[in-house]
Amino acid sequence: MSRTLASPDEEPQYSCFEATREGTGTSETVAAQLCQGARSDAPAKCFQRVQEKGFLADPQALQLCQYTTPEDDPASCFLKARTSSFLDETQLVQLCRPPIAELLQFCPYGAQRQ
User: pLDDT, tens digit, for every residue of 68-92?
Assistant: First the structure.
């Protein structure tokens, strides 16, 4: 099985990684964790929003935004729920994180791509 090598700019994980580092000054380690398996820069956008408007610490923002797709909007969910509920931040993160994040906790070696 051969795969055509793409430039780093064409890889969604790399563009997510760069967007995270440039937009927030986040460490390379956190940016790499956030963007692992990313299919777009959606995790970076989510991460930036919740850090700017939600004032979440890196670990919580990472947990909320990792595996975000363009169809998901965990940042909006978190920000809305934060103003209209009495749940603590940990519960809000659990409520709003992308559905795939819950499934992947049962796959310690990641999902296999077909």
Answer: 999 989 999 999 999 999 999 999 9
Sign of the CA dihedral 94, 97, 98, 103?
A: negative
Structure tokens at 46: 């989510």
- Residue identified by tokens 């890196």 is 58
Token pair 């940016």: residue: 31
Residue 89 Cα distances to 61, 75, 86, angstroms: 10, 12, 9
Question: CB under 8 Å to 72, separation ≥6 — which residues?
Answer: 42, 46, 98, 99
Burial of 37 (0-12, 13-18, 19+ CB in 10 A): middle
- Give the chain as a 3 state SS string: CCCCCCCHHHCHHHHHHHHHHHHHCCCHHHHHHHHCCCCCCHHHHHHHHHHHHCCCCHHHHHHHHCCCCCCCCHHHHHHHHHHHCCCCHHHHHHHHCCHHHHHHCCCCCCCCCC
